[in-house]
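Need residues for this backbone.
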């Protein structure tokens, strides 16, 4: 599967975002049209690289640095497609420059648990994007270590 250029791995050998057992940590993942392109796709954003570790995502926010544009009516989502949609079907009009956003109304209520080897995927749907840069912040707590 394709990944964001700024994909983060927690747990496992590829871990580049350390989550300590005794605290929560904010992890930032960035979608950037300049490096990730805007084609409709599902791109790995946060990957649990361990089959035994479990993580809770307890908070979320996103900052739109560069407005999302498109010739159509795209939506973006962040989740796993199995009932853990932290950010679901967010419309282009919502993704305006310098906008700070939280969990969207149609999303799963936080916290959500990311089980062993599960991942969160950033999905571009219904139309390609032609610009945009979104910083997504996830507050993560390791549950089983």
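Answer:
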């Amino acid at each position: 599967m394709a990944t964001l250029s700024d994909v983060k791995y927690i747990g496992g050998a590829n871990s580049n975002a350390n989550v300590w057992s005794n605290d929560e940590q904010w992890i930032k993942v960035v979608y950037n049209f300049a490096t990730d392109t805007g084609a409709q796709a599902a791109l790995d954003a946060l990957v649990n690289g361990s089959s035994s570790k479990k993580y809770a995502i307890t908070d979320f926010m996103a900052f739109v640095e560069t407005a999302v544009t498109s010739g159509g009516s795209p939506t973006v989502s962040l989740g796993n497609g199995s009932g853990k949609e932290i950010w679901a079907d967010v419309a282009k009009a919502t993704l305006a420059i310098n906008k700070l956003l939280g969990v969207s109304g149609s999303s799963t209520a936080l916290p959500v648990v990311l089980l062993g080897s599960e991942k969160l995927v950033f999905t571009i749907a219904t139309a390609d994007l032609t610009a945009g840069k979104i910083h997504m912040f996830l507050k993560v707590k390791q549950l089983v270590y």
